[in-house]
Batch of 2 targets.
Target 1
Amino acid sequence: MKETEGYYIKDVARITGLSEQVIRKWEDRYGVVRPVRKGNGYRVYGEEEIRRLLKVQALRKEGHPLKRAAELAIAEERTDVPQERESGAGLYVRQLIGHGEQCKEAELERVLRQAHSELGLARFLDKVVIPFLKQVGGLWEQGEWGEYQESVSSLIVRDLLVNIRRNVSPAPGAPLIIGACFPEERHELPVHLILLKAMMKGYRTHLVGASPAPGAIESIVQQLTPDAVLLSASTTAPFLRHPDLLEQLDRFAGKHPETRFYAGGTGALLAAAAGKPHHIRVTDDIGQVMRDLGTNAPA
């Protein structure tokens, strides 16, 4: 029921379609609404609160993460806050977040392909894929997305990157780079990204993929004698299951000085902090790895 001074929360919930719990959460966490407390302790909301809640809902449907949608809805009411103009790449990321939230696989693939076609591979990776994956990870860590939303979004990106790699043909005699996850590591998207960047520099690439068997990396290196090996561990699972894994691979790398070894990801960084390797460069700076590789890139 509407009061002369405003609306009770149950009325706001009915008008907006939001639950009372969500309204309180948006109030407490993001400051979207600022109800007045009556003498009896009840919250009373004005028309401006309802407009702001509806605006946040609309922005969420367009693909904005909740925190950003709240910021935009609040800023829209402040004439002294300039509204930023969104770049083409930023618009793609926003669309991807919207489709990912609703698990629309076909729309995710369509937007990714359109962005790749318009921006070219380098800008597509740096301005769309990497920012999108970072937002997906953040939404999942904050509990705003479920595991299925995160999984669908990541798999669609992975499948497209695999397809792009298959359609790039470096020169047969170009230097070779092997990309692999550590054993027990199943997050292989970072490997796909860095191999694509290496391909743009003219390298041949070989993907070992997620969770190779113990000893598989060493075996492949001995067979193919690559110029560089790129290892990834986003989680600590490889090192919890195999505590001496990084040390073993470091000793192996020391026996193959003709090959440069790199390791990245949160898990690898944590493992290296416990025992710094001598022959494997551990870094999360993809740009630095690319600059290192670029010093010996094919002409």
Target 2
Amino acid sequence: MLPNLTALRAFEAAARHQSFSKTANALGVTPAAISRAIRRLEDDLGFDLFDRSHRAVSLTEAGTRYAQRVTEGFRHLTTEKAEQTPGRPTVTLDVEATFLRQWILPRLCEDSFRDLQLSLNIRTHHDPPRVISPTADMAIVWGFADYWGFKRQRLVSPRTILVSTPSLGISTLAEAAGGTLIHEADDHWWRLVFSEAGLPYPDATPTITLNRCDLPVEAARLGLGMAVADDVIAEYELKTGALVGVDGPRLDSQDYFLMSRSNVSVPAQAFAGWLKDQAHDFADWQKSL
């Protein structure tokens, strides 16, 4: 007996979101409906797809394998539909939201993108996804990961950079102790920076801790202090002069990777090539910092 299509759709979404409540919000149903659909699918298949705890769900080993098969099945269906749809070709990209806003969107204004003569369907995620959507031609993820059916290529390699608004007149790390230190999540990167510079960490200096990697850049732009950020996220502000780099150690961070399907369409290949060209230009700019 073939699995119920509605249950498969619920499972595929739950495998990506790793949350029944997020899946329910995405599909416009209740978490209980998602749970029931997946339970019925598990009964039909004869094995558990998820490990369930009081507060979270996670794919079992068998569930991960099945998610890969379902993802590829949906992918074939959507590819056939796209091939029969006339008009300008569309490339579907899954990408981390901050990287999209700070690095990709400013580049879509360039003639080199318009010359591709294609449409983009862009969907965002905030964390590295467990499974890439079956309707995606490609994805950009932060951090080293493997996804079934996709080949991985390094796209850009961020480096930490100290930034401040020009109005504060800060030019060296030593001057940071007189102001406010801004960072994401915790003071880990600031402590590394001071250690690499051979300077004591100024524990008495006030700090602002933010929970997204783009927010320290925005806080620094507003003149709230000096931020430790990465040059991928701060690129636009540095190029426009809204922020300036401050002398100090540059530390490597985790890379962004382009995940492409092995059977990707010609328009998607062209877009991937354009992204790689942009990444090459970015690397040249990095060397000038």
